[in-house]
Amino acid sequence: MSSVHDAGLDGAVAVVTGATRGIGRAVALALGRAGSEVVVVGRSGQASPDPRLPGTVDEMVAKLAAEGVEALAVQADLSDPDQTQRIVERSLAWRGRCDILINNAAFTSNGPIMAVPWRRWQKAFRVQVVAPLQLCQGFVPGMVERGGGRVLNVSSGAAQSLTPGLALYSTSKLAMERWSDYMSLELPGTGVAINTLRVDRIVATEGFHYVLETQGEDVATGGQGMSGVMSPDEAAAHVLWMVSQPLSWTGHTVGFEDITRAGGPSVPAG
């Protein structure tokens, strides 16, 4: 088993939120294929699947198991503090530690800033800001004690733009990026790497295809067209590159092209 102090992922315990579909699903599969044991976290379970989109935590664990990957399903809604805490408790009961935490789950409600009800803002900040921090507070102390670990927060290019209708998503993702910076600032020399991937390309997730099929290309791409659209597997390759860097590589917020320039996977031509 590789040590958490090196760049290897073999034998690491990884917790991935939003892992039933999209980038999270692709990341969970990529980590499993790299030798990690995976805690699959998502809202959709066998008894309560999403009515519109495929994928449950049970199906993901079965798929990983079919590939010889040890995995644990944790059905949890990050908008609920108790369910979020259950992720920590069940993960630690399963393997006693978390070496890699991927905070990927997200919530948005598009519309003008005055038209989106404040309760949806509250939910977005809970899912994108407070719950990931709660998971860090549950897992990072163990990483510090062991002398190493990785946290990767998945943000969005929306955090750096003023796009009509995306105020809620943009603001909450920017808040996530900011506390990531502070956590990195406050944990120097601990061996815990805190980094953020800014998803600054359209990724063709199941949700993207649903919007494409029901509302058309203009809505699905924000008028940008299909040029440069990435697959979830391509996005996951960038995540894998980030969590394979030495533990001294910390405090970075990078987009896909930044990773390519640093020697990581390439991105589709835009």
What's the gist of this structure?
This protein is α/β, with parallel strands linked by helices. It is 44% helix and 14% strand.
SSE layout:
Elements lengths: L12 E4 L5 H12 L3 E6 L14 H10 L4 E5 L5 H15 L4 E4 L14 H29 L2 E8 L10 H20 L5 E8 L6 H10 L1 H5 L10 H12 L9 E2 L1 H6 L9
Parallel strand pairs: 1-2, 1-4, 2-3, 4-5, 5-6, 6-7
Helix pairs in contact: 1-8, 3-4, 4-5
Look up the CATH topology.
Rossmann fold
- Largest sheet, spatial ordering of strands: 3-2-1-4-5-6-7
What sequence of helices (H) and strands (E) makes up the elements?
A: EHEHEHEHEHEHHHEH
In quaternary terms, these chains amount to: single chain
Radius of gyration: 17 Å
As residue ranges, the low-confidence spans are: 1-7
CATH level-1 class: Alpha Beta
CATH superfamily: NAD(P)-binding Rossmann-like Domain
Mean pLDDT equals: 92
Give the overall silhouette.
globular
Query: Helical stretch count?
Result: 9
Under the CATH scheme, the architecture is 3-Layer(aba) Sandwich
Number of strands: 7
Helical residues, percent? 40-55%
Number of domains: 1
Content of β-strand: 5-15%
Please give the alpha-carbon distance between the first and last residues: 40 Å
Largest sheet: 7 strands, parallel
